[in-house]
Write the structure tokens for this entry.
Amino acid sequence: MAETVPSLPAKPLRQPPSVVYLTLGEVEQNLRLSRSKVYDLIAHEGLPTRRFGRAVRVPLAELQDWLARRPADTSPAVAAPWTARRGPDRAGTRRR
């Protein structure tokens, strides 16, 4: 008499959701920022990245979430030091 082995129910294979990764150059182009500014955002403001060996990539979905969480820049523009008003003691005077 042959024993029958119960078969396992077939589970559908779950495929991982497709994740889109951007290169830092693509982030620069899409955000219209310089390379140094993108590196500054990574180092100081928490721009999400993933490393694959030496390659650095930014997950698109996390970038969109990160941008949505950032507050809008409502601060007034800061005057450059050479255009700032001078105090009353130096107003209108020049060094010769």
Summary: The mean pLDDT is 79. The chain has three helices and three strands.
